[in-house]
Amino acid sequence: MEWEAVIGLELHAQLATNTKIFSAASTAYGAEANTQACAVDLGMPGVLPVLNEKAVRYAVRLGLALDAQVAGRSVFARKNYFYPDLPKGYQISQYEIPVVGPGHLDIDLDDGSRKRIGVTRAHLEEDAGKSLHDGFGTMSGIDLNRAGTPLLEIVSEPDLRSAREAVAYMKKMHSLVRYLGICDGNMQEGSFRCDANVSVRPVGQSEFGTRSELKNLNSFRFVERAINFEIERQIELIEEGGAVIQETRLFDPDRGETRSMRGKEAANDYRYFPDPDLLPLEITPALIDQVREELPELPDARRGRFVTDYGLPDYDAGVVTASREMADYFEAVVSGCGDAKLAANWVMGELAGALNRAGLDIADSPVSAETLAGLLRRISDETISGKIAKEVFEAIWAGEGDADAIIEARGLKQVTDSSAIEAMVDEVIAANPEQLEQYRAGKTKLMGFFVGQVMKASAGKANPQQVNQILKQRLDG
């Protein structure tokens, strides 16, 4: 039997506010445990929550970017459950009327096509604390610093059919929230997390199978591995005569498998009811218009502009607009060198490779956009060749100065004097009579051998185009 996966994602984006969603406590990462949880976060008697306006504006910003419905009126509810890291015994969230209603996000598939993924809703809620299990022996510790941290839970439709599609959607949403400036997207710090709902069904069947929820996946790689394992586990279980049960599962990255955590709760298990301490949230058309005017250029629009204005291939445009920081960097390089394709090649190639090896984000690049543009200008005006430029780039990365200073200090200027190149060509041909005879007998692939010898004789400084042109004249003469 042929099977089909049905996948929906719940993405939790921590909103980039300085204070919590219902209190003035700090959201700064890395503070000593339990130093950033105030009486409101703990639900102490006599305190009242006050909604953070910036969190609301951030939610509206995402709603507009997803071409979604933004509710004029939404309601906060209490989601009741009992965990040691939930001091109030309930979480303030939104249930029946979320702030953001149906929208969509388009993703790129491996075959070059695009697919529209429905977004069911995005709702505001507060985060819980964190249970700590290492260093406490047989006990667990509780850190309530995260309690009350503002989250936007973004729920997709079950439109995803593979782990690759799920990762593509997650990456696209990750890029979008960073473009919008509403979330820093730092997955290691828990700022962007994923719960994946996975089920399988026979191909052609319209009814959904029983789903498992894979909880708290905090990397793109883990999402792909966990979903792939879960799909295989469910298919194998059903084909052996078993049945999938609705449950919450955790992914063990060391063993590459999911394991049961607990039975999956249904909505009625949480006993949702409107929070009596919070009035309904009303968002006026004027506020929505104001937020719309503040929106930056969105990734898809910027990608299209790079294709139209800069003449980039669609693939290149997609890569350099993957993050707002990279797109800004690229445009600054183009402004400084005037050659968009050359800039894209270097940003995607040498720069991206160096950043990956150093584990750096482009925002922390030791090579500024202005400095890279200076290097590319020297390629364009033929001061240096592309090969020598890589040597210069490494020196720039190492902090030896800008391109002009390094070229001068190392004597790397390209040889463009035709007479000098002609002399080197003649010497190489004279030193290799056997290869010359073979070339003229029809082994024209030896052209590469002669080019290599001339470039070696010039220490890589000879202009490659001139070398090829002069060699061709000499060898065919």
Automatic annotation (TrEMBL):
PROSITE patterns per UniProt: GATB
Annotated catalysed reactions: L-aspartyl-tRNA(Asn) + L-glutamine + ATP + H2O = L-asparaginyl-tRNA(Asn) + L-glutamate + ADP + phosphate + 2 H(+); L-glutamyl-tRNA(Gln) + L-glutamine + ATP + H2O = L-glutaminyl-tRNA(Gln) + L-glutamate + ADP + phosphate + H(+)
EC numbers: 6.3.5.-
Pfam families listed in its UniProt record: GatB_N, GatB_Yqey
KW Protein biosynthesis (keyword) present: yes
Keyword terms of this UniProt record: ATP-binding, Ligase, Nucleotide-binding, Protein biosynthesis
Coiled coil: none
Chain ranges of the Asn/Gln amidotransferase domain: 328-475
Function: Allows the formation of correctly charged Asn-tRNA(Asn) or Gln-tRNA(Gln) through the transamidation of misacylated Asp-tRNA(Asn) or Glu-tRNA(Gln) in organisms which lack either or both of asparaginyl-tRNA or glutaminyl-tRNA synthetases. The reaction takes place in the presence of glutamine and ATP through an activated phospho-Asp-tRNA(Asn) or phospho-Glu-tRNA(Gln).
The family this protein is said to belong to: Belongs to the GatB/GatE family. GatB subfamily.
HAMAP family (alphabetical): GatB (MF_00121)
Subunit structure: Heterotrimer of A, B and C subunits.
Protein known as: Aspartyl/glutamyl-tRNA(Asn/Gln) amidotransferase subunit B
